[in-house]
């Protein structure tokens, strides 16, 4: 196995989905790509747009990936890239939307349940384990009785869009701390202190 990290931004392909809450993982990957200083290109081993580089000067080698499949089939590209680059599950990072934490919050964890997130469920199935890292980008719960699927497939609201660049920036920072300093350091830095 290698010391490379595979960072996968979850979302759906196509411009009609690009600003949806469900695509916040791919928005974070776009920010990371800007920091690495490169452009995504299709990869021969998987249906994914990939960028290889380093986060920061002398930082660890990362493979940034945006599956070109729909969210609920994110596992195939993730597994194929992990095999291709020799990355074990402990160095796979899924960046995804999370309705169970408030908007404007970033949390990190290793393993655990998928909370009804079909993209995570498919990755767990394809990797054969739930023990990969997650950077959970809070999008909040749907209002009233709105269906969860309808909610995550809508664009961020006007007030949210003003805060969104800060949230994306924070999530990208969290990925950087995670790969540089480890999960515990990232959790200590980004998880809000309990009152």
TrEMBL record:
Catalysed transformations (reactions): an N-acyl-L-alpha-aminoacyl-tRNA + H2O = an N-acyl-L-amino acid + a tRNA + H(+)
Localization terms from the record: Cytoplasm
Binding, tRNA: 17, 70, 72, 118
UniProt entry tagged with the keyword Nucleus: no
Entry annotation: catalytic residues: 22
Residue(s) at site: Discriminates between blocked and unblocked aminoacyl-tRNA: 12
Record site feature (Stabilizes the basic form of H active site to accept a proton), residues: 97
Keywords: Cytoplasm, Hydrolase, RNA-binding, tRNA-binding
EC number assigned by the record: 3.1.1.29
Chief location bin: cytoplasm
GO terms for MF: peptidyl-tRNA hydrolase activity
InterPro entries: Pept_tRNA_hydro (IPR001328), Pept_tRNA_hydro_CS (IPR018171), Pept_tRNA_hydro_sf (IPR036416)
Function: Hydrolyzes ribosome-free peptidyl-tRNAs (with 1 or more amino acids incorporated), which drop off the ribosome during protein synthesis, or as a result of ribosome stalling.
PANTHER family, A to Z: PEPTIDYL-TRNA HYDROLASE (PTHR17224:SF1)
NCBIfam families the record matches: pth
HAMAP family on file: Pept_tRNA_hydro_bact (MF_00083)
Family: Belongs to the PTH family.
Protein name as it appears in the record: Peptidyl-tRNA hydrolase
